Amino acid sequence: MKYRLLYLVLDGMADSINDEVTTLELADKPGLDELARKSICGLMYTVGKGIAPESDEAVISILGYDPHEVYTGRGPIEALGAGLNIREGYEVAFRANFATIDPVTRKIIDRRVGRNLSTSEARELARALDNMEISIHQGYAKVVATIGHRAVVVIGSRTRKLSPMVSNNDPAYQRKGLVSIAVENPKPYVEPITPLDNSEESKAAAEIANAFFEKAVEILDKHPVNIKRVENKLLPANALLLRDAGGSIPKATPLGVKYNCRFALLAEMPVEIGIGRAFGAEVIPLEPPTGDPRVDYEKRLNTTLKALEKHDVVYVHLKGPDEPGHDGKPELKKQKIEEIDKYYVQPLLSYLDKYAIIVTADHATPPSKKTHTDDPVPILFYMPGLLPDNIEKFTEKNCMRGSLGILEHGWLLLPTIIEKYLKN
């Protein structure tokens, strides 16, 4: 390759192209804007028009794979990122959220326990559920807490084969095959998990998953962690919402083979770590955020630059903007973008003579919608000596005028950039 490539993805950075003013338009981000002025730009549907993707599906796509061909569900990817293996055919993995529900009516009070469940609290709750015995089908469950309210649940049977073709009980995401689509304005009630086909394997998986959910509510509602949280006027984490079942790890050409290069992936969340492992990248886990953006992004930039010394392509996933988008907090989303710009992108500008750079997002998370949408996300591509588009600012509307045009699928981006611009 002519230059080593930094592939920088800002999680949920984009808003809707139809918003009157987007967060990128409001943000003070001189680093990203300068980079855009020196780049060619465009827009991209990260999976496809009409698909509001979950992060895992979108990341798989923007790494250059059609997720409809290789995707096996988010659950196995999260499990791999959390260090769990799946016994194919007899176990099914789910991505899970600790949540707050009314244990009688099953009304969902908060899908993420107010976003203030600590990782240590979640791990203590998970230990109370891990290795649960389930009476039906000689079933069992493994539970691992990952970061904050996030967890992985693996259900299994000692005697019955299980299929991942089951629905979610989290109403915020609707299952379509193995893919889940974000639902705008979902009904706030836990839904029973149901088979998505007529097989006995799907029926058994749904029955074990529902039995796990019911038993978990009983245990969590009386757990000392939750009793203490209620005493402190905090929401209890008294349920686990399950979604995105899968029964196997994706099988695809490894990234290094696909692009004939040394490929590294830097991420802090289990889902991206799991994707890196599943698709054969060298995975470099990032330390969890300290709460000090200067410290956090300086560490991330240093790790990036070290990785670029040894690898041809380094994919870096920064989480910041996504959560405030989900929470409908435009000012906080603006702040998160500005922090990345100040402490990561601006210092990066002094290395422009050495590296090629892509900057984009895995999906749009507009605060106006509080969920992922199918809106196209902005892209910039910089390479030393490349004639730029002279785009003034890095925003959705400005990038629409760029020479990269509008890519219909995210899986077209990386192969196009490598083949057209970076191959010797």
Structure explained in plain terms:
There is one protein chain. The protein is of the alpha/beta class and 424 residues long. It has two domains: 4-70 and 252-422, Alkaline Phosphatase, subunit A (3-Layer(aba) Sandwich); 76-246, no CATH class. 33% of the residues lie in helices and 21% in strands. It has 15 helices and 16 strands. It has helices spanning 23-26, 30-37, 55-62, 67-70, 74-81, 119-129, 200-221, 224-231, 255-258, 270-278, 293-310, 322-326, 330-348, 396-399, 413-422; strands at 4-10, 40-44, 91-101, 108-110, 132-134, 139-145, 150-157, 173-176, 179-182, 239-246, 263-267, 282-285, 313-318, 355-360, 377-382, 405-407. The strands form three sheets. The protein has an eight-stranded mixed beta sheet with strand order 12-11-13-1-14-15-2-16, sandwiched between helices. Strands 3, 4, 5, 6, 7 and 10 form a six-stranded antiparallel beta sheet that branches. Helix 5 (74-81) crosses helix 10 (270-278) and helix 11 packs across helix 13. It is globular and about 65 Å long.
Biggest sheet, in brief?
8 strands, mixed
Poorly predicted runs are none
SS class: alpha/beta
Let me know the CATH homologous superfamily of the largest domain. Answer: Alkaline Phosphatase, subunit A
- Give the strand order, joined by hyphens, for the main sheet: 12-11-13-1-14-15-2-16
Radius of gyration: 21 Å
* The CATH topology of the largest domain: Alkaline Phosphatase, subunit A
| Architecture per CATH nomenclature, i.e. the level-2 architecture of the largest domain | 3-Layer(aba) Sandwich
The oligomerization state is single chain
Structure summary, number of beta strands: 16
- Judging from the principal axes of the Cα atoms, what is the shape? globular
Specify the number of helices. 15
- Beta-strand share of residues: 15-25%
Mean pLDDT: 96
Number of domains: 2
What is the CATH class of the largest domain? Alpha Beta
Q: What share of residues is helical?
A: 25-40%
Amino- and carboxy-terminal Cα gap: 5 Å
